[in-house]
């Protein structure tokens, strides 16, 4: 069983849908799901089996992973996205400003909404970085980074480690 399936228990899927993971996999195999797109599988689960949209997505992702159509952490397109966040004891506007000032040449800004979000192209020209900022109180905020379009689990691991280090450095630089 993969990481995605482990997060949602067998009991939870059975309670919500009337079947467990193995039963869903068998039913999807019988239908021929490996020959269908992610979107088609989700639609079939919703339309033909009456599964709600959240569960249809969860069942489809778990099935694709179990059948080797999708690696854990990747989309159906085979690309990976990682995310890292850090809570800092400063107001959100200060955190946003510090992040933008230390972005460096690797990040090429596409758009931003001060104090809320920023979107960048990464220096490789093929991946994207989306950064969100949220206030958690008057003197506390969180920055969350999502790096998209990564090509391998190894690249995803490297980028996740790099972003963890980068956010830790940012926190050390601006924390009171």
What would you say this structure looks like, in words?
The protein is an alpha+beta fold. It has two domains: 64 residues, no CATH class; 95 residues, 2-Layer Sandwich (Alpha-D-Glucose-1,6-Bisphosphate, Chain A, domain 4). Helices cover 47% and strands 24% of the residues. It is built from seven helices and five strands; from the N terminus they run αααααβαββββα. β2 and β3 form a beta hairpin. α3 packs across α5 and α4 packs across α5. The longest helix is centred in the last third of the chain and has 22 residues. It is elongated. It starts with a helix and ends with a helix. The N terminus is likely disordered. It comes from Kibdelosporangium aridum. Pfam families: DUF4287. This is DUF4287 domain-containing protein.
Please give a handful of descriptors for the protein shown.
Alpha-D-Glucose-1,6-Bisphosphate, Chain A, domain 4; single chain; 176 residues; 2 domains; alpha+beta; 5-stranded antiparallel beta sheet; disordered N terminus
